[in-house]
Amino acid sequence: MSSLDHFVRGLPKAELHVHIEGTLEPELMFELAERNGVRLPYSSVDDVRAAYSFTDLQSFLDIYYAGASVLCEQQDFDDLMTAYLHRAHADGVRRAEIMFDPQTHLERGVDFDAFMPGFLGAIERAEAELGISCGLIMSFLRHMPVESAIETFAESAPYHDVLLAVGLDSSEIDHPPADFLPVFELARRHQLHTVAHAGEEGPPEYVWAALDVLRVERIDHGVKAEPDAELVARLATDQMPLTMCPLSNVALGGFARLEDHNLKRMMDRGVKVTINSDDPAYFGGYVGDNYVQTAEALGLTRDDLVTLAANSIEASFAPDEAKAAWLDELRTVPVV
Q1: What digits encode the pLDDT tens for the residues 312-335?
Q2: Cα–Cα distance measured from residue 285 to residue 12, given in angstroms and rounded to the nearest whole number
Q3: pLDDT at 49
Q4: Cβ–Cβ < 8 Å for 76, 35
Q5: 15 catalytic per annotation
Q6: Which residue in 279, 204, 288 sits closest to 249, CA to CA?
Q7: CA 12, CA 312: separation in Å to the nearest integer?
Q8: Which of 38, 56, 174, 196 shows the greatest Cβ crowding within 10 Å of its Cβ?
Q9: Domain ranges of the chain
Q10: Backbone phi and psi for residue 275, each to the nearest 5 degrees, phi listed first
Q11: How confident is the model at residue 278 (pLDDT cuts 50, 70, 90)?
């Protein structure tokens, strides 16, 4: 392990933008397919990895939803969450706020009473055994109508007390955030936090709408905000967190190379940027890998990396006491 790897993985940090279905590694995909009698369109793990060559968000989503078809029983969701939390812990994650897509499972006939106990059982064990703190973000698929999101929110009622937030993900183009205002208002009435993907591939106007119409507390991605100077100033003034995912942005064509990513430029303009992994099984790296590769590509200093880790903790929805303890721990990390 290089000195940079060692430093990064020693930083106490939060991961705020990870889709649990996107942590499904090919090995586990094949294991679950065999367990559940699901036929995959791939003959081997190598064939799956070879298919992980994407041209845009939709080409990724096609294989992402196909992979999710192997998740059928409570134990499958437990295994998936357990594998992710162990990887996150090894990367120095103290707090994980994890997105899941219920509609992906509901439309396959897999209901809340299968995936929620699986997720929650794994989280309970990880909190006890690893000391990692967790929260669940229920994300709505924006390529489906808002009526489906509202119905999904109603179906989730038995689990509202264990949800941290609601979010909005999936294909962004032609699906503006404002379409989902009714379900976000419902979530707020139930005292849930709100986040939304905006400005991943959509225009700055989508970021404005997420801020002013949905009134979210964090913007997921937000990289397309950069051309709008007024918007960047607003993000900086409000200290609105952006949960950026550098390796994902490059894999899906948002930037030609990691060296072109705007994370450091946005940091330098005062925006509260964080680093996250998005769908790490598909994009070649968990949160530690995103920190290391981004640092190398953009010339980030160790002080920059400490700032990014601090941003992630401050932007989390964890209790203030816990955040203060992690920030105190972060201050003890030597940066030389």
Answers
A1: 999 999 999 999 999 999 999 998
A2: 18
A3: 81
A4: yes
A5: no
A6: 279
A7: 10
A8: 196
A9: 3-331
A10: -110, 135
A11: very high
Question: What confidence score (pLDDT) does residue 208 get?
Answer: 98
| pLDDT score, position 20 | 98
3-29: average pLDDT: 96
Q: CB within 8 A of 254, min separation 6: which ones?
A: 200, 201, 223, 224
Q: Mean pLDDT of all residues in the chain?
A: 95
Please give the pLDDT value at position 46: 87
Q: Give the C-alpha separation, 69 to 108, whole Å.
A: 8
Instruction: Quote the CA–CA distance of 58 and 198 in Å, as a whole number.
Output: 15
Q: Dihedrals φ, ψ of 135, to 5°?
A: -145, 150
Furthest C-alpha separation in the chain = 53
- Cβ pair 247, 282 in contact under 8 A: no
**H helices present in the chain, as ranges:** 3-9, 26-36, 45-50, 57-68, 74-90, 102-106, 112-129, 146-155, 181-189, 204-212, 229-238, 246-251, 263-268, 280-283, 287-298, 302-315, 320-331
Residue from 200, 205, 296, 321 carrying the catalytic annotation: 200
Which CATH code for domain 3-331? Answer: 3.20.20.140
Residue 253 φ/ψ, nearest 5 degrees = 90, 10
On whether the CB atoms of residues 93 and 137 are closer than 8 A, the answer is no
CA-based R_g, the chain, Å: 19
- Three-state SS for 195-223 is EEEECCCCCHHHHHHHHHCCCCCEEEECH
Which pair of structure tokens corresponds to residue 300?
């980030």
Amino acid sitting at position 245: C
pLDDT of residue 35: 95
Q: Copy the structure tokens of residue 210.
A: 């997420």
